[in-house]
Amino acid sequence: MAHYQAMGDIPPKRHTQHRRPARGGRTGELYYEELMGEEGFSSDSSLLYHRNIPSTVVGAREWSIGDLSTTPNHPLVPRHLRLHDLFAPKDVKNTDVVTGRRLVLGNGDVRISYAVAGAPSPWYRNGVGDECVYVERGRARVETVFGGFDVAEGDYVIIPRATTHRWIPRRSTKDPLRAYAIEANSHIAPPKRYLSKYGQLLEHAPYCERDLRGPEGPLLAEDVGARADEESEVYIKHRGNGPGGIVGTVHTLPFHPLDVVGWDGCLYPYVFNVRDFEPITGRVHQPPPVHQVFEGWNFVICNFVPRKVDYHPLSIPVPYYHSNVDSDEIMFYVDGDYEARKGSGIGKGSISVHPGGHAHGPQPGASEASIGVEYFDELAVMVDTFRPLELGEGGRAVDDGAYAWSWGRPRA
């Protein structure tokens, strides 16, 4: 987003000489300036100053990125997916957030994956689109060429396309690192209606720049106990002829990826914690757009947080029945009690899939039971897509097969 930051050692004027410190009376060598920018020099960008030529590659091999095949939701039914059944506890210590992701749902605009990780990830960059990774549980250190973050439960980690980074779980916590990864084929940003024409978050937005955490840095190889000349591998997800048009490559570099001595600009990774989202409430039930936090091309991300609910004397706090005529609605239930879904089997770690073309809403009896309730203690992350989502191998593996009939018994 267009919020200028500067970090580390940069020259006073862009695109001018920036040299290493002089030694023995000799002029220092030039640092290598890299422009990382979006939309062909027409949108946000940052300038990074490297110790090494960023184009250098001394080896390349294929990376098999796992099963990205999808199956249409046909016949069309709502579904309940149990994400906490995807990973056996014995497998967690050897799973990482990058290579261990299992595809739950996807289409040509966005893919939703899940990982429960105990191992550090390789260095990685997504060359297809931005990523928004929601930390459901656990803690981790995220190291990037822009700097590092400590992330924990409730954090959204926004990582721009082509940002080299890695995830290192903190093993001292009681919970393993549970990561809900939303991968776009586009960029992910705050909703345009929250922003001024110059990119500042406006007064009616449910969060502001003070709530965003930028990277700490700069972060260099020696800061993480590595050698600057250490040969390294970077796993790259990029466009190709694989399932979903995506394939993987591993590049070998003759140096450590953390070689940026300074950078400035408006394009960089950042973190936003869901607890800093200020819910918008009203006398009667508010529609889902008030819960929106980010958007990408053909999809939006919303969060439902603990909040005071409708206070009209005749209000019905749970949602009315609604038909998603233009979108699929994917709700990931993270914490709390879900008044509208009681009796459906949905709980923490569940995903509900409400596809376009199907009217959905509260479970039988939930509307009446909610009358008089003043506060909802719930936390959920919702993704609405404007093209149909299909089931990935992870979604197919944990479909309960019964949710479609939770509003009424199926025919014998």
In the predicted model, the low-confidence regions spanning at least 5 consecutive residues are none
* Radius of gyration, taken over Cα atoms and rounded to an integer in Å: 23 Å
The main sheet orders its strands as 15-19-12-9-14-7-6-29
* Average of the residue pLDDT scores: 94
| Secondary structure: number of strands | 29
What portion of the residues fall into strands of 2 or more residues?
A: 35-45%
Which percent range fits the helix content?
Answer: under 10%
Helix count, per DSSP? 2
Largest sheet: 8 strands, antiparallel
- Structural class, by secondary structure, is mainly beta
Principal-axis shape equals globular
Distance between the termini: 54 Å
Topology summary:
Elements: E1 5-8, E2 32-37, E3 45-50, E4 59-63, E5 79-82, E6 102-106, E7 110-117, E8 123-126, E9 131-137, E10 139-144, E11 147-152, E12 155-159, E13 165-169, E14 177-184, E15 212-213, E16 232-239, E17 246-253, E18 260-265, E19 270-273, E20 292-296, E21 299-304, E22 307-308, E23 322-323, E24 328-336, E25 350-354, E26 359-360, H1 366-370, E27 375-376, E28 378-385, E29 390-391, H2 393-397
Parallel strand pairs: 8-16
Antiparallel strand pairs: 1-18, 2-3, 3-18, 4-17, 5-25, 6-7, 6-29, 7-14, 9-12, 9-14, 10-11, 10-13, 12-19, 15-19, 16-17, 20-21, 21-28, 22-27, 23-26, 24-25, 24-28
